[in-house]
Amino acid sequence: MVAVKIDGKAFAEAVRRDVAAHVERLQSDHSITPGLAVVLVGEDPASEVYVRNKGKQTRECGMASFEHKLEATTSEAQLLDLVTSLNADPDVHGILVQLPLPAHIDSDKVLNAIDPAKDVDGFHVSNVGLLATGQKAMVPCTPLGCLMLLRHHHGKLDGLNAVVLGRSNIVGKPMAQLLLRDNCTVTIAHSRSRDLENIVRSADIVIAAVGRPEIVTGAWIKSGATVIDVGINRVERDGRKRLVGDVHFDTAAEVAAAITPVPGGVGPMTIACLLANTLMACCRALGLPEPS
Ligand code: NDP
To answer: Which residues are NADP(+)-binding (predicted)?
Structure first.
């Protein structure tokens, strides 16, 4: 292996420490506790784990965590009522509705009902538009985490060729916007892209967010590239269940200059950025200086 392993776990711990220190100052200087409300509809096992971890890490940072677990049969109107009451609650500074929602609920309608100032996931159409037009936005947590790792590793990203694999609203599109904002030359590839391998080979920075186990191998990677693997895929190998990314780590690490592992790369950054966004939403709501 020649690549440096980018330690997202350690970086996320540092982000959470900074958030906790800021929360402590808010409490001592202003008697304010930032609050995050997380709404889970139904019993998707993976979502339940994510929500539990979010609640735990929120409390560990000294913030208030409000968890709302609703039955899978909850109607769209009932969910919208809950969002309206959270929008009006002064103790709630951030609202996250865990996706995916059951099929009978229109996710876009629910996400767009969240007060954009409390939209710590950055999925409200106002925040999407603000990001796309280079204005101050609430930025989606996973791409924000990727950008933080990249900036930490590279410094300035000016002029680098970045290829984003995947064009979802949650990861691919906001990631591309963030890289563009940092002056990269950005290509977005997806399932209809032709000659994916050669597109990826042109990249100084590869962001893989497709949800296909180890689709990107070392043969696709330009020597010296930085590889950020967003994928989380549950596979069975030799009778054992394990998590792998969208990148084949061992072969990619032979040619890349730096690479994130799965697990322990992007994953921990997502919740750390959610906490940072909640803190920022709280400071903005109260007109206090924002954390840097
Ligand atoms: P989506 O399924 O919403 O999007 C996947 C994207 O990948 C689509 O744009 C799709 O193209 C593209 N794609 C699928 N197959 C191929 C292929 N064979 N070649 C090229 N492009 C392809 O997934 P998400 O964006 O939500 O998530 C992507 C991955 O990231 C998943 O593994 C997910 O678990 C993980 N993830 C990890 C997070 C973390 O915290 N680390 C957070 C969020 C997601 P098209 O649009 O044409 O269909």
So the answer is: 166-168, 232
